[in-house]
Specification:
Elements: H1 20-38, H2 60-63, H3 88-96, H4 100-112, H5 120-132, H6 136-148, H7 156-167, H8 172-184, H9 192-204, H10 208-220, H11 228-240, H12 244-254, H13 259-277
Helix pairs in contact: 1-6, 1-8, 3-4, 4-5, 5-6, 6-7, 7-8, 8-9, 9-10, 10-11, 11-12, 11-13
Length: 281
């Protein structure tokens, strides 16, 4: 994407515990993030991988295997923490009793085909029940279904609407998803300023991919002034949260920094981490 225009590596995202649609969305989001970020660099624009037609959306997980990235592999979200076993019958009872958390969980069972036959329509119905009660995670999950056209009519604007609801609650995945929509101009007008605003919001909440995105922006001067200290800071934070590619790009940034700049960048990163870890007031 940003540093190795010669390579077209296979694209891979670890199983991160998202629903089937969520995994599709996450893979798509990263691939699209690279594609559109590269357009901001004329020197390598003729090497971009072109994906033609949304009609091939069902093949995106396969097609996304060939995207232009910086270090020979795509950044990966950290592996999820193992979840405790669930009781579908108990969850269903709670969901039917209007428990928003249980509605989200029950929707995930159908989205993932976990103990039941995969059915995105059923998943969407339970996600909507939860989302209508203000559950931010359900709002993002429902938005992902609208973006992918799984279980509901394909509708970018509706996807963006649900992402915004989650983002306005300060939910990092919603903020990151909305940033991608603004970056691409899907469901909302294309607006790099708004994209940067929501990337920064997600980064401020410690969302790993948003931290990575900001680091790359500061490295390349995309929508911000180039700043190796800020680039090192954000890339360090992303690397610390499991985005391995961030550490590799950070090494390149560091090779052009003074010792004083590296010290300052590490200080800023430590300060940010301490702020995130501090209990909410």
């Amino acid at each position: 994407m940003f540093m190795n225009p010669e390579g077209f590596p296979k694209y891979h995202v670890k199983n991160n515990g998202l629903s089937g649609a969520g995994q599709t969305y996450n893979s798509l989001a990263l691939a699209r993030h690279r594609k559109f970020s590269d357009r901001q660099q004329p020197a390598i624009s003729n090497r971009l991988l072109k994906i033609t037609g949304f009609a091939k959306a069902c093949l995106f997980l396969g097609l996304a295997a060939w995207v232009l990235v910086s270090c020979g592999k795509a950044p990966e979200e950290p592996a999820p923490v193992a979840e405790l076993p669930i009781n579908p019958t108990e969850i269903k009872a709670k969901a039917e009793a209007d428990d928003a958390t249980a509605q989200l969980q029950y929707g995930k069972l159908y989205a993932n085909g976990d103990g039941v036959k995969r059915d995105y329509k059923v998943a969407a119905s339970y996600y909507r029940l939860s989302a209508d009660q203000g559950n931010a995670a359900a709002q993002v999950a429902l938005g992902e279904l609208f973006e992918a056209g799984q279980g509901v009519e394909h509708d970018f604007a509706e996807a963006a609407r649900w992402y915004r609801k989650a983002a306005e609650q300060g939910y990092p995945r919603g903020e990151y998803a909305l940033a991608l929509m603004y970056l691409m101009g899907t469901g909302v007008p294309k607006d790099d300023g708004e994209a940067l605003k929501w990337y920064r919001a997600a980064a401020d909440h410690g969302y790993p991919l948003a931290l990575f995105h900001l680091g790359v922006r500061y490295k390349n001067g995309q929508g911000v002034s180039p700043d190796p200290v800020e680039a090192f800071k954000w890339l360090s934070l992303a690397a610390d949260r499991g985005i391995t590619e961030a550490g590799e790009i950070r090494q390149e940034v560091q090779s052009r920094m003074t010792r004083a700049q590296v010290t300052e960048a590490k200080r800023r990163a430590a300060e940010f981490s301490a702020k995130l870890a501090a209990p909410a007031k």
